[in-house]
Amino acid sequence: MTSDEHSLSHPLGNMSTILARLNEIASLVTHAAEAETIEEVLERIAQVSRELVQARYAALGVPDGKSGLRYFKVAGISPEQIRHIGHLPQGRGLLGVLIKERRPLRIDRIQDDPRSAGFCVGHPHMTSLLGVPILMGHELYGILYLCDRVDGLPFSEHDQWLIEIMASYAALAIAGTHMREQYSRLAMLEERERISMELHDGIIQSLYAVGMQIDLMRTAAEGRQVAEFQQIIQGLNQVIEDIRSYIQNLKAASYNQKTIRECFEELLTRVHIPQKLSVEIEAPDLRAPFAPHTFEALCQITHEAISNTIRHADATHLKIIVSYRDEVVEVQIADNGRGFDSSEAQDCKGLGLRNIQQRARLHGGRVDILTAPGQGTQLTVNIPIKPSS
Questions:
Q1: Pick the residue with more confidence: 246 or 110?
Q2: Do 58 and 39 meet the contact criterion of CB atoms below 8 Å apart?
Q3: Distance of alpha carbon 345 from alpha carbon 55, whole angstroms
Q4: Of the segments 51-55, 223-227, 350-354, which one has the largest average pLDDT value?
Q5: Using CA atoms, how far apart are residues 18 and 162, in angstroms rounded to an integer?
Q6: Inter-axis angle of helices 15-33 and 38-52, to 10 degrees?
Q7: β-strands 328-335, 377-384 pairing
Q8: Per-residue pLDDT tens for 173-188?
Q9: Maximum pairwise Cα distance, the chain
Q10: Which helix H or strand E contains 358, and what residues bound it?
Q11: Global pTM?
Q12: Among the residues of 121-220, which ranges form H helices?
């Protein structure tokens, strides 16, 4: 075999073609890596991978280390289609095979493979699969999934080579984004420290000054004018409003920095979960499309509900499901505990439900309770979404 024949036998073609494709892939991944967040980076890599091999669908899943997926970003499926899918992939079936074996997988008919777990309700029909792990050394950064070429043909060896190269570059991009986000978190902590100092050295000191003025006026002559007291009170009210403004900005920044799932997982760190109680969370791993005060209310309601379960339910399993649709966000909190008479849910006495009801009403929402003695309790909270401006 001549050198020319050998180069032509390579899946990517001759050397000039190989170099051109490598430069193309490097340029695509470099553009993807310029996104601000890891989620945007993953979305861009999924999109350019789809375009690279002319696939109808592409996705990039990042394992969570617990046999599931922390992120799952798709290309080729509209947001409307996603809303009708029963649930996001959970790292089972062929996706689980890729996570476990960490080797490329090319299948002409998904339905014929005995390892396939099938598709959930509402999922688009897909036939062929090309899956490639995104590895750097022994570190698994994600899995690229491509389904169905546009021309209807099965994925080729040429396609697999392209996506394997894409995965190699993607590992560098994702690792770099992780490092950048870690640096950003450190910078954010420093900024919070600065704000804390500003609160202490500025606002709090102003409160002390106002307090001293009031004390001096109390000990002064009786002829003091009431108007002067009024002026001091107005100054104090202004300082209080400044503090509220600082706190609201801090809360908004905190909620904007985390995904819905991250915020609800963080709730569990604030509550002492008994060893016998397992807690399961199903929540979108993306940033909330609603205002921070709505998100805060949902988190506070969920915190209260978790506390109620721990104190009263004697449950062994608690499941929290967060979803949003039709301009309403819904949180469902269900346990397998002792339950109670549904008439008790009406007055909320002694069960810690009154605060939940009132907080939901303040945000234009409602709370529905489904329970019976020995049947567990399901609490569902619906609050209208008011998009963050």
A1: 110
A2: no
A3: 52
A4: 51-55
A5: 10
A6: 150
A7: antiparallel
A8: 888 877 777 666 666 6
A9: 111
A10: helix 354-362
A11: 0.46
A12: 157-198, 205-218
- Separation of first and last alpha carbons in the chain: 66
Output the pLDDT for position 274.
85
CA dihedral 104, 105, 108, 111 (to 10 degrees): -160
Tokens 């819905």 belong to residue: 260
Q: Where are the beta strands (DSSP E) in the chain?
A: 55-63, 69-75, 105-107, 129-136, 139-149, 278-282, 317-325, 328-335, 366-371, 377-384
Question: Residue 222 in contact with residue 183, Cβ under 8 Å?
Answer: no
* Contact in structure between 166 and 52 (CB atoms under 8 Å): yes
Of residues 136, 177, 228, 149, the one with CA closest to residue 45? 177
Q: Which residue has the tokens 């001549």?
A: 2
- Distance between CA atoms of residues 203 and 77, nearest Å: 50
Backbone angles phi, psi at 127, to 5 degrees: -110, -60
Residue predicted with more confidence, 294 or 216: 294
How many of the other CB atoms lie within 10 Å of CB of 153?
12
Please name every residue paired with 140 in a beta bridge, in sequence order, or none if there are none. Answer: 135
The confidence band for 331, taking pLDDT boundaries of 50, 70 and 90, is very high
pLDDT beyond 60 at 298: yes
Question: How open is the CA angle 18-140-147, to the nearest 5 degrees?
Answer: 60
Tracing tokens 């009132």 back to the chain, one arrives at 358
What does the block give as tokens for 72?
């799952």
